[in-house]
Write the structure tokens for this entry.
Amino acid sequence: MILSSVVVFVALAFATATEVQQCSEGPERVIASMVEIRPCKKLPCKLKKGTEQFITIEFTPDTDFHDIKNKVSANVFGVNVPFIGVDGNSICSKVFTESDEKAECPLKAGTKYLYKDSFPILNFYPTIAVQVRWALQSSEKEFICFEVPAKIIQ
């Protein structure tokens, strides 16, 4: 079943998709057609303290969404810890059309969008391996969810 298999998304032109796994708990379907985390070249993604990481998610909603927020956490020794600086933030100001024009919420069903964001790897984060869980949600309901192994490094 796809819920437990690794899903490799097709890259956009000049972009390299990151290998991610659909969440085992969460939405029944992933409607993201591509996820790119930069500068992740291979798994586990190396998240260097004191740097910014960049993410692009390509998706096509199957329903209109009025407000969308990130739900991002790192599993640290079995405990999900919110990712400071990105968890709970609205993505509406960071969404673009596939022709790279600024889009705004509400997002329309059947339209392809690119969500582009960055997030800090703070210096006080411990140097450990984590499982990052990234979800997009509207009205507290997740519609995209994936996980990726990562290692926070010096």
About this structure: DSSP finds no helices and eleven strands in the chain. The longest strand covers residues 141-153. Residues 17-153 form a domain with the Immunoglobulin-like fold (CATH 2.60.40.770).
